């Protein structure tokens, strides 16, 4: 009987330790294209430097997070980076949906120089 009580206590203690971490599930979408998924967008948790990328449907999953508040940084080339505050609970997965807007590119510092090519010469174009 003593061994049975020990086994039951050990089983309950291991279950309680496995519930100390939470999960973050999310989807990153393109604000410019009717919220279509952004494939391979980068998702980073600022406090832990944990990184992942979205899949073909724009979804991502980050597991084994301690319960608490985190800053989620979502980015994709050519889009504005967004930071979102997220609370992770050990008992229920936190869900996030993010729409990224395209960023603007300034060509104010770009100067193009060109020259005309004479016969048997290669044209020359330089960007500064």
Automatic annotation (TrEMBL):
It comes from the Bacteria. Pfam families: CarbopepD_reg_2. The keyword Signal applies. Keywords: Signal. Gene3D superfamilies: Carboxypeptidase-like, regulatory domain. Residues 1-18 form the signal peptide. InterPro entries: Carb-bd-like_fold. This is Carboxypeptidase-like regulatory domain-containing protein.
């Amino acid at each position: 009987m003593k061994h049975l009580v020990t086994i039951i206590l050990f089983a309950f203690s291991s279950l309680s330790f496995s519930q100390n971490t939470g999960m973050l599930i999310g989807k990153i979408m393109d604000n410019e294209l009717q919220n279509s998924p952004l494939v391979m967008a980068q998702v980073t948790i600022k406090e832990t430097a944990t990184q992942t990328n979205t899949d073909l449907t724009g979804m991502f999953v980050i597991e084994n997070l301690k319960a608490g508040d985190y800053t989620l940084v979502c980015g994709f080339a050519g889009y504005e980076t967004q930071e979102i505050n997220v609370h992770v609970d050990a008992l229920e997965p936190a869900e996030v949906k993010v729409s990224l807007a395209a960023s603007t590119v300034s060509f104010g510092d770009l100067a193009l120089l060109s020259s005309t090519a004479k016969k048997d010469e290669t044209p020359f174009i330089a960007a500064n």
